[in-house]
Amino acid sequence: MTENQYREVDPYEVAVSDMNERRSSPVTSSIQESIEKQGVIQPPLVRERDGMDDAEVPYEAVVGQRRVLGAQAAGGVETIPVVVVGWDDAEALEASITENIDVFREDVLPEDRATAILRLMDKQNYNQRQAAEALGVGRKVVTRMIERGREEWEGTALHPEHDNSTSTSPTKGQTEKTVDNLDDNSVREIRKMTGGGSEGEEIATKAVQDGLNQHDLNEAKKRVDRGQDPHGAVESVTREKQEIQETKAEERTRIELTFSGDESEALTTAAKQRGATENQVARQEIVRYLEAEGFL
């Protein structure tokens, strides 16, 4: 096929292409609700599955897989518009990646993005500069996005080829975050301070558990550069971060009250009777009110 063709097809006749970058993205309720109300407005780009064994699913979505899955989940959607393209695997993979880079999608797991770009580089025999040119991004962006594909991460949960089925950590479908959720810059900082491998994986797991970000890990790396061991550096950064958070939580709310006339006289009298200052009396009464109303 040389020209793109517009067609109306049953959403269940479309599968997700292996060339699609979004291997782990769920269908959100907003997408499903929008399709239930308005149908699919923007046609997904699909390829014909020539030579496939499953004749009941003649198409595969290259771009717009969530629109297809949303239509399937919505129920009652008899047909959706699609544009049938004649792309080969490399072109389909490149289109999928480019679509998501252009809008800087946050819901594409870094692992999926790294896998897709590495596959593209392998299929097209691209180096990082050529891949960056093909995708319309800077070379440093590509370098960052394929961080997990480095040999230092082979055999760990951070590597794209890691088998999640053998891992005891939460899977992508669970709500608890895993090392898959670490951003690429944080992974790079961990590699620089540990050299990757099993120690890097341990630090990455701790970073996720303790909510450390790139800035925290960069600070830990600086301490490693000054001679501290990686685990000790991360522990000290984590402890200091927790102390700051606790301090902020304990900060008092300061208010200024002004009384005049009868109120001022009454406050002064109450303070004398209690042997306290006006501020102490005002505070005591505020606390008593908050307790009586169930706020404390």
UniProtKB/TrEMBL annotation:
UniProt-listed Gene3D superfamilies: 1.10.10.2830, 3.90.1530.30
Any Pfam family matching the protein: ParB_N
Keyword DNA-binding applies: yes
Entry keyword DNA-binding: yes
Biased amino acid composition, Basic and acidic residues: 1-10, 152-164, 174-183
GO MF annotations in UniProt: DNA binding
InterPro entries in alphabetical order: Chromosome_partition/occlusion, ParB/RepB/Spo0J, ParB/Sulfiredoxin_sf, ParB_N
Domain ParB-like N-terminal: residue ranges: 7-101
Region (Disordered): 1-42, 152-183
GO biological process, one term: chromosome segregation
Entry keywords, A to Z: DNA-binding
GO cellular component, one term: chromosome
Name of this protein: Chromosome segregation DNA-binding protein
Naturally occurring in which organism (per UniProt): Halococcus saccharolyticus DSM 5350
